[in-house]
Amino acid sequence: MSPQPNAQLSLHELKRRRPRERLVQITLLLLVLLTCYAWTCGDIHLNDLDLARRTENLERFVQEDLAPYSLRDQEHSWTDVAAWAWTIAVTRGFEGALQTLAMATVAITLSAMVAFLLLWCAARTSATARPYGDGRGRETLAWRAVRMSTTALFVYLRAIPEYIWAFLLVAMLGPSAWPLILALAIHNSGILGRLGAETVENLPPRPLTALRTLGATRTHIGLFAATPGFLSRFLLYVFYRYETCVREATVLGMLGIASLGYWIEDVRTKRYYDEMVLLVAMGALLVLCVDLLSAWVRRRLRQAS
Amino acid sequence: MKRWLERRNWPLGTRGATVLALLCLGALCAWWLQLSPSGLLPREGGVRLAGQFFARALTPAWDYETPPPEGTPPLVMKALEGARRTVVFAAAGMSLALVFGLVLGFLGSSAWWPQRMRTSGVGPVVWTIARAIMVGMRSVHELLWAVLFLAAFGLNSFTAVVAIALPYGGTLAKIFSEMIDEAPRDSAGALRQLGANGTQTFLLGLLPRALPDMWAYAFYRFECAIRSSAVLGFFGFETLGYAIKQSFENLQYGEVWLYLWTLFGLVVLVELWAASARRRFVA
Questions:
Q1: Class of domain B75-282
Q2: What would be the CATH architecture of the domain defined by A94-304?
Q3: Percent composition of chain A: helix, strand, coil (DSSP 3-state, to 5)
Q4: ipTM of the complex as predicted
Q5: Domains of chain A by residue range
Q6: Which residues, 6+ apart, have CB-to-CB distance to B3 below 8 Å?
Q7: Which of B91, B94, B139 sits opposite A288 (nearest CB)?
Q8: Which residues in B lie closer than 8 A to residue A277 (C-beta atoms)?
Q9: Which sequence spans correspond to the domains of chain B?
């Protein structure tokens, strides 16, 4: 082995020659400046941090609001509290949690299907005049337009948050489960579509090109070579988004759709903070369970691929 | 049951089974929720509303649709001001989340703990506590944190910042700890053989290998924080969501579309910035 040229250099020289990117440096500087600006521009009122008053608020909240209402004026043991919590869980919590879960499942299934159908129009390797080729040859304007518009659609779908989609859709469709499901599906198809298209682009090109030279059509390659190749990773993304879907579905109920969030908003407007905290905790527990489930599925998928 | 679950050769293979299970579950849930395509048709009044709303998509209002009180700034300025506030809350929340994320992420990564502490008992306890805090912060959605803090502290700017910072801090901590644990150990091993102690190995050998990924991920979360910060407006903080909600309830759809396009522009701008920076970070 020949001695590496770097070995001759002094530390000082090495430091001077390290790879540096202007954009990265500017980005870091800008982000630091932005943070300083954010804290000092006056929108975040530092005197809001009036600790004495906040602590007082918090104490009132913890000591008065959080005690179960029906037990407030009497001696109560932990068994009473547990019984109270159980009543709330049975009357609203469990059904809300199940409904949240069901809506998130429908939404993720829908968005996975939509993303799967659309991503072929966005991936650079499949949406060209000569799909899965060696990259040479002229690009037609029509295919470029298809690709650009699909990509732009994905960007638009995911740039607007689910909550805003749901807010707009509730006004149009009324308070059924659809606005929530559609809002989640719209946002997530944008995300899954982009991630899926990237995965297709990053597939090893040789086997696909070989099939192409053997005369396979776009559809053949897409269905029987590209799909098996990218499915594992795509499913990983789907389950990763499923967690987020459940989190969001809980919250979107606050717009008046029967998920866990509906009951949270219900007790919030009535200022029954004791019940609110309990329901929020139930939501957290639901998210945690789905986290574990999705982690298990993803581990199995990774083992299998 | 366990052996059956761990078995490698399911009929159809793992992926096929997963796809089939997902589709069946989706159909089952749709049936249970009694979803029907007719629900997709807007109700009475909804059709008119949808028509009026989407008609303005490409022609957002550039000026107030009803004359505002004397002295209000022009509509475009109001949208930009909303966008500025959105970024301010997102940036403040993210900076706090970064602190939470780094501290908890280090404590919750197994690479941080030297071998000897791992066996003596201090490590596992702190590790478990850090993990539990992470999970707790992450499992509650930022809007639910906001709702809780609104109840506990009342409406003030810190409520929004902390509501963003807690769940984002939890997520950052989780991802950071995974990145630190999965970073290549080559330079750390070299340093250790040269006689560096645990802290030196971690800070100079392991951390620099994980740092580009960590930065890239944190930047991506900043983009998400902007969306969350906009949505927090629906709960009374004066970000873009606040303006969207107000204008929509006043049926001023042109204004709503101006705000929506502003938000869209903001998110796309940050996304392009993040994407080009990320490409250079990670490469």
A1: mainly alpha
A2: Orthogonal Bundle (1.10)
A3: 80, 0, 20
A4: 0.85
A5: 94-304
A6: none
A7: B139
A8: 148
A9: 2-40, 75-282
